Amino acid sequence: MAADVFACLIFRARWKAERTPSSRSWSPGPLPVPIPAVEAAAGRAGESVVADRSARTGYFSARVHDALYSAQDTGATGRWHRRSSGEPPEWTGAVVHDWELLLDEEGGYAVAHVRLPQQAVEVLSELTKVRGEGRRWLSALVDDVTFEPVRPRVVTHFCWAGDRIPEPIPDPAALASWSTMQRWQWFLASGTSAADGLPDPADPRIFAGTVHLSSDWRAAILRDGVTYTALTSTEATDFHAVARAYVRSIHLDAVLLGLLQLNALHRIADRIAGIRVDRTGAGAVESLEAEILDIRARLWWNNVSERGVQVAEVLRAFQNQHRMADLYAQVVADLDDISRYLQARRARLEDEALADAQARQRRAEERHRVSEDRDRRNQTTIAVTSFVLLPFAVTFSGAAVLADPSVSAFAWSIVAALVLSLALAVASFLRDR
């Protein structure tokens, strides 16, 4: 009765070297994982295969190939791998066999492929602690990247030999209501030990993310990780060696894709939370909407396999654990609400601008009307004054020329001027009719 546990620890990381990955002994593409030459995995010619980039792109749909398998030296992005040279490094019985990187402009992931000792639960717990000897040991092995100060996600595979499953912890009494398999699933998927704290065994949601893969193995998906556990002994079937290769390749890729989806959604959600709608223009919202469309095209998939549904079921269970569908729906709804607000604000501003322009036009028209009225009154005054004074001026001038100045001449001049003014008024009236 012996346990055999292999773990892939997925650290949030950033490339820190000045040189490109290829110049630092990293090879492009995912880690080529040999699949043992047993009957379940042999090709049509009877030869064993390797889960390299070519094999995995044949398994996954083309729409996720760039996200998972591209490798660009420029900017140090994409997928890279490096095997441990010489004797694999060891710490308290844990042995690192290989490393992988999945990098983008926002950072990325470093994956340590580690075989765990018989005390797998305690050692895994130490390796997942943010501060501790295990973290320092792992980070010293790969000095090209910097680990972010967060717990790594874990993808583990557990198989066993003998007539019954061994216990994961010395004292299982605290979780006695669980089966031995469930105890393994909890500790290996959470990356914790009994000393870190125990869950409520009566919580029915803990194993809601279980995926039944076959009669030989099963996957349990928690928020912090995924574990694949053998239901049958390695003495009964040679499938578990093949299952381990699957876990280290295509199933690891499914979890990495889920992490890319999760981080992309959280990044957009954080940007939306930082928006102040009273000071935000359409440009910022347009940029977020473009990013959402890009994520939906490159990452937001759950049917990702060209062959079989097991990997897709694990990915969907991972998405459900993190409620990614709800987060995606909220992100889209928030962007729609912000867009509607901006449209309403723009319409209000346009209405206010139109009303202001109309008010300015009315004021201009009123000033023009007042000016015209003033000019008309001035013209009328001048016309009336001219109309009255002209006859007087003509009459007085004629009287002054034709007769001697006298009171009677002045009186007759006034009478004549009045008669002439009246005649001109009557003539003007008759002409206007």
What does this structure look like?
The protein is of the alpha+beta class and 433 residues long. It has ten helices and 14 strands. The strands form two sheets. Strands 1, 2, 5, 6, 7, 8, 9, 10, 11, 12, 13 and 14 form a twelve-stranded mixed beta sheet that branches. A two-stranded antiparallel sheet has the order 3-4. α6 packs parallel to α9. The relative contact order is 0.10. The model is unreliable at 42-46 (pLDDT under 50).
Helix content: 40-55%
The count of DSSP E runs of length 2 or more, i.e. the number of strands, is 14
Gyration radius from CA atoms, angstroms: 44 Å
Low-confidence sequence ranges: 42-46
Shape: rod-shaped
Instruction: Give me the secondary-structure category.
Output: alpha+beta
Beta-strand residue fraction: 15-25%
Number of helices: 10
Question: Main β-sheet, in a few words?
Answer: 12 strands, mixed
Query: Could you state the order of secondary-structure elements as H and E?
Result: EEEEHHEEEEEHHEEHEEEHHHHH
Number of domain units: 1
